[in-house]
## 1
Amino acid sequence: MTTTGEEHARALTGPWWWARWRSAVLDGSLALVSAVECGAEGVPFARDAGIPVSVGIVFGLIAGSVLLVRRKWPIAVVLVAIAITPAQMGFLMGIVGLYTLAACELPRRIIVALAGMTLLGTMIVTFVRVRQDMARGDLTLGDWFVPFASITTSLGLTAPPLLLGLYVGARRRLMESLRERADSLERELQLLAERAEERAEWARNEERTRIAREMHDVVAHRVSLMVVHAAALQAVARKDPEKAVKNAALVGDMGRQALTELREMLGVLRAGEDVGRRAASAPLAAVGVAAAEAASRVADEDGAVEGPCLSELEELVGQSAAAGMAVDLSVEGEVRAYAAEVEQTAYRVVQEALTNVHKHAAGAKTYVRLAHRGAEIAMQVENGPPPEPASASAVRLPSGGNGLVGMRERVVGLGGVFVSGPTDAGGFRVSAVIPAA
């Protein structure tokens, strides 16, 4: 299992310059063995140098113990090993020090220079010692053996620790690089997860807003007409039974249409739940994408029922006229087909505007204008002042205050322009322009 950079930093609990306690114990053990070795080698060195043996032993112990600081000052350890090479001391310190030097993150020229000095010093000392042994008769080989022994001995004591140190250093740097990349990938994954969660939450909010807007458009207009017809039915029930029957039939038709549209909306919601379950089973990074796609495609998947279109606009106006509204529809330009979302948005704008007339200006003369232009479609619903200001309240139509907001969101969402406000004559005007593409 690969540890991350933070876990690696928390693992650095050793004393002084050691990263771990086991590293300190290892260096202490190596320094102890090196000190014993140098101390033992200090005895013949003292005899050859003509100094007291105790001095040679103390010198060897001090020189060998330098290996304790090999991780902190590897150059100093190698220099000490080179310095005591003529005394035939510190073989372990030279090998370990050279390995540590090669494994450190030092410039290559320094490593090569110190390795060359070690190689040259070992070669010279070995050459001198072997030549002296042959002069004393300890070795009876030919003259070729002196350079051969010096070269092989110096290479044997220098090349293996140097190559091993270079390999370990390169591997250590590779592991550090991989650890940094793992940390970076972990941070990126966390960022992607956070962004995916934010996108999923945004998609859920958008879907809730869309559903609320659709429910408002589906229910508000039909129910408003039903309330208007019910009020008219109550007024003429005894005076004009035939008109009352007609109004009752209209109320029934409106109720059935409202139930049909609600049923269609529930079918869309069930399709959206299926999409949500598929997104929940996907990886976390795909949740935001799946939710966003569900928000934009839920109305079209699995054969969901399409929304209203502009060809139904005349029927919509006729329903308002049947409810007693004096409404006039005019269409300009060449009638043509648009994208489904464009036609649905245009229809909903006119529908909501007529609903607001029923709520707030019952009985007012209303004009519905639709203009087919080259690159856009424009619509306008304008009503005059109500003949009886109290008529709207008499019908008792509640208002949630979200109709204009929903219309603006629909139009702006398609890149169009929406304007609404009172007129100078005391009425109200709703205008919208939607790009055809």
## 2
Amino acid sequence: MDQETAKKLLVEGGTFVFLGVPEETQFGIDMQCWNTEEDFRGIKMIPPGLHYIHYSAVSKGTGDVSPRSGFMQYFHKKDFIVKMWDKKSEDISKEEISEESIQRLKDNLLNLDRHLAPYPYDIWQKWRLLCSQITAELAAKLSPENGLIRASVELLSMTDAERPRGKKSTEGSMGGEDSEEISTKEEDAAEESTCGQSDAKRAKRITREEREDAMLPVLKPAPGTAMRFTEIPRDKFPPGSTPEEITKHYLDQSYTLELMIAQHDEPLHIIGELQFAYLCFLIGHSLEAFEHWKNLVILLCSCDDAIHKYRSVFFHFIRTIEIQIEEMPEDFLADIVMNKNLVYKKLREFFRTAYVSKVDGRLLTMIERFKENLTEKLQWDFTGLDADEEDERPVIVRLNEEVE
């Protein structure tokens, strides 16, 4: 970094002191990671803002690396944060550092400084784009209650009393009376459909599969360890909707997006949640976070009316997903292209919606540029957007025309 920036960060930057970390431990901040040396004591010159601190214990004998753990931390100007390593648990200590100990470290800062690594400033601009809509409050709201984001969450078996009976389980499965109620709604919506297969048979098949799943152990995250993502509503339509309205809300999921946005303090926090989930996957190695990120992308790409109502949300959605795809691991990108998975298909749907609904102005310019960049950099094919693919054609619902 240039001298002027270095001087400014020396004065205003935050400091993270991590005491007792064993040599060769994997430690990182944001998108940078190192193996620590014997005299490592932490990071200095941290730019004010949100940061992701993460670490993994490394076995001295075998070199095996434990699943990554970490936490989001908002640094204000001149923040001085101290944490300890717990040798027994090979993890960050849960004990709070006393104010007296912190003050002694501050008084000894001249000697401590040579053991602190400078923040890798070359990643700062990209990092700011990746977390531009994540506020300190939002990060705390979405993180587990204990504050630690883990790649491998401790799971516990549910007791018989906790096992779901006739209601939706925490994993999103359906069973019993709840399943029958939903199946009935689907049957009403798709009555006399051109698909050629009765929903009653489909409902029976789903119920049978879920009965088999019910025989398997049901696990739940240990208390305080689960991510607290906003739940995507199961019902995609308002109560009392007609079959025609149900079909509309499945094709245009703006109603579902509205329900999600209503659970946040402001609309752009839905983009902040998208960014948070992505970073927990990219840096925290959480597959649960990846699934939530994918589901949010699919939802945002499945909206029509909302594009016009929440222009700012979709403006930042394009900016966010463009840089996220650039940072996506190659094997995940290959899966998107080779298998034409839902992310790829929903992006096609999103571009087609923008084309059909005549989005104009700056948003349309961004969408066109994004589409061209994906085609140029990744050879993704977005031709033929004015025609539906065979498996994307909507199911036609024929309403009963008989009048009583």
